[in-house]
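We close this part of the discussion by returning to an individual protein. In the encoding step, the backbone of a single protein was reduced to a row of integers, each denoting a local shape. The sequence in question and its structure tokens are set out directly beneath this paragraph.
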Amino acid sequence: MASALQKRVRGWMAFDWATQPFYTLGLTFIFGPYFATVAAEFFLTGGMTERAADAQAQSLWSMGQMLAGLFIAFTAPVLGAYADSTGRRLPWLIAFSAVFVIFTSLLWFMVPDGSAAIFCLVAFSIAFVAAEYALVFTNAILPSLGDHDEIGRISGDGAAIGYWGGVVALLVFLPFFYEFSEGKTLLGLSPAFDLLDGMAREGTRAVGPFIAAWFMVFMIPYWMYVREDNTPNRQGGMRAAMRDLKQSLAGVFHRRSLLNFLVSSMLYRDALNSLYAFGGVYAALVLDWRLMQIAVFGIIGAVAAAISTSVAGRADKKFGPRPVIHFCIITLMVVCVIIVGMTREQVLGIPLSPGSPVPDVLFYICGSIIGGAGGGIYSASRSMMVRHTHPERPTEAFGLFALSGKATAFLAPGLIAFFTWWFGDARLGFTPVIGLFLAGFVLLRWVDPDGDRVKWSSSSIPAP
């Protein structure tokens, strides 16, 4: 019989499985590209050229990501500090889970004529904020799930389980909901066994309610096995929380390893999130892929992520998280160079014959690498954060981690939007992502591979 701690670890991992379809189906491979194609068609019928319509659709999507990221950046540390001060995290997680379920369900209203595009973009952004808030509270539990040597493996296995959840969700959604041709699914039926109207794209639009239902079902183990200590860490409520948060923020500047890690992760995670958010959009606008091709691309990427993340967790246990992050960033920079240098007509300046399958094959390979390297960065980064986390302030610390992941969340989408507008080209709009990865890689040089949690314990310098 599994011990209480083993059940708690498994329950904790259920969160990744329950939420991953939002990122896999919603952000990257189904709703994101569907939104881009519908918005581009809306702008095209409004009189824009095809190239301008594609650029405008990508800019609109990036603007939504940018605003949501900014909101998370400036509120997550405050929320985390208050939650630590009260010792209550579960009520917050329940509240944000409810918001997540409601607003993902509203994606159903993204009708093909584009009339509800702004409404659905707002709904998606709110759901994104709720998901990221819930992640802060869930990550705060990670330090209590194992010792120093086990955290990397637990983080990696949790992330791997999440990616497998994304794979399974795609394998369920594609044959039973997504309209492959003329309003029919791969099974030759209307979506959901003829219950939905495929010609009105109700199958694709069902991605929101599908994500919400998936979350409600698979969060059950979390609610069953993950418990919390209701004893407050400190007294004074919000005032004390803000005082301690201010002290922690000031203390960051006295901790070189933590400061460089937060800034580094701020840059490379922003670049990675942009690859996730715009990968499917890029394929739809630059390579003219249909949503079915993008979905297959998603399956390949998610499978690669599930396998490589588990491997990364074990590499983390053996070598530590910093070498894992280094390797993944280098890999992603190479992929970005290939993506920016690729069109239907040429690859890195090498001309292609008309109708060549090379761009498609290359992009599938790039997708698998993005999934694999991205999964490794995700698990290793939160493992590295644990090495910089005070045991009595985990939610505040992961609130700062969320801040580092979102403080410049406007930067990559904003740069993509600006460069896309400047060049009038969705492909060249990706150029600044390479620079963000490079800057993050360089800053890791000043990050202590073992973190500074132990050093902090014997220091008077305040820190999260």
About this structure: Residues 149 and 317 are 6 Å apart (CA to CA). The beta strands are 346-347, 350-351. DSSP finds 19 helices and two strands in the chain.
